[in-house]
Write a structure and sequence with these properties.
The chain has 387 residues and is α/β, with parallel strands linked by helices. It has 14 helices and 14 strands. The chain is elongated.
């Protein structure tokens, strides 16, 4: 029996790789003859570079000293494979990397991302895949642009720093430094929010980054001013999207900056990884597919990684089980059938804190129990459903 294991991360508890390994152990405990294969997934956020490296089966980790969102010195990595660099912005400006005691949403900028890109280009990369997700900044990509040599200028031609609170002084963006960039940029992004407005970067994601209601209003105005500034220095404008393009608001506006100045193409993180890892072929070869994430609810099968796995399983007639830390049964009860099972791994009596701490053992135990029950069902004992 072949089991393909393709989970997303269980945020706050397990990386996608750790989740996959826990499921694999549970499967083998249920039946030592089971053959398991792990293909971790990601939406472009934390762990994306490592997951992509696993999908393509090659690549080296390159470590770089960068500036964090609040100016702190950080060590970040990207993956290099021939002329390809795979960068995850969370390495440099991720929420998981900030000191919340000193974090200031009106000062935090994305310079570390630009430093990663600059290092990769200096090392010979001509293709970039950039995972957007989990950022701690809302600067419209200003910090990244400055780190790549772009100059932000005020009405007198003086340089403006990329800290968000200063962006209302920017009248001109001198992008001369980017004029000779000959690179192919693909962005892994499952966010469809525009840069500005009620569904924009500041309004939707600012509160997650410590922004107050007043901060959100101010950040939206500041990023609006930046995006309206006059751009000079580019003979050919590499625009592939504008302020209201879906995904422009990803990672505090990095989506907009990457499209506007580097001609980036945005694509779903799942589809990118599925293609890189030939997930469809692996699903066709498996007898059972396992996926999972921290919470399964009405949003799970509407664009998240498990939804992509489910679509492929339906296409090829393969049974799927989704493991989750918590399950909203009301939202998903009508989605389960003989080919789809949803398993909550957290015991009912366990607190959230304990669930996060014991996610690995909970997931392993749930996989062991499910596989034992599923094999019995295959011999005619009952139907798959919510466990």
């Amino acid at each position: 029996m072949r089991v393909l294991i393709a989970p997303d991360s269980f945020k706050g508890s397990l990386t996608a790789r750790a989740a996959g390994e826990a499921i694999a152990r549970g499967c083998r405990e249920a039946d030592s003859s089971i053959l398991t294969e792990i293909i971790p997934l990601s939406d472009g956020g934390e762990g994306f570079a490592e997951v992509y490296r696993t999908a393509i089966g090659e690549g080296d980790f390159i470590t770089v000293a960068v500036d964090g969102p609040n100016g702190e010195a950080l060590s970040a990595h990207y993956v290099r494979s021939k002329d390809l660099a795979v960068i995850e912005i969370a390495q440099a400006i991720g929420l998981e990397r900030i000191d919340r005691e000193i974090h200031d949403p009106l000062s935090a900028h994305s310079g570390g991302v630009g430093q990663l890109i600059d290092h990769a280009l200096g090392a010979g990369a001509t293709r970039l895949i950039i995972g957007l997700g989990g950022s701690a900044t809302t600067d419209g990509g200003a910090g990244m642009l400055v780190a790549l040599g772009v100059r932000l200028l005020d009405e007198h031609g003086d340089t403006v720093s990329p800290h968000p609170r200063n962006l209302d002084r920017v009248e001109t963006i001198d992008a001369t430094a980017l004029a000779n960039f000959d690179i192919d940029v693909t962005v892994a992004c499952d966010v469809t929010n525009p840069l500005l407005g009620k569904r924009g970067a500041a309004a939707i994601f600012g509160p997650q980054k410590g922004a107050t209601a007043t901060d959100v209003e101010q950040l939206d105005a500041l990023v609006t001013h930046l995006s309206d500034a006059t751009v000079v220095g580019l003979d050919e404008q590499p625009v592939s999207g504008d302020q209201m393009t879906a995904g422009a608001g990803a990672a505090g506006g990095l989506g907009w900056a990457l499209m506007r100045f580097l001609g980036a193409r945005l694509t779903g993180g799942f589809s990118l990884l599925a293609q890189a890892g030939d997930l469809a072929a692996r699903i066709r070869q498996a007898d059972l597919i396992c996926t999972g994430e921290g919470k399964v609810d009405a949003q799970t099968l509407s664009g998240k990684a498990p939804a992509g796995v489910w679509d492929l399983c339906q296409r090829y007639g393969k049974p799927l089980v989704i493991f989750a830390g918590t399950v909203d049964e009301t939202d998903i009860a009508d989605l389960t059938n003989n080919a789809l099972s949803v398993v909550q791994i957290t015991p009912i009596e366990q607190s959230l804190g304990d669930a996060l701490r014991h996610g690995e053992s909970n997931l392993e135990a749930a996989a062991r129990t499910f596989l034992s029950q599923w094999q019995r069902r295959q011999m005619g004992e009952g139907k798959a459903g919510i466990q």
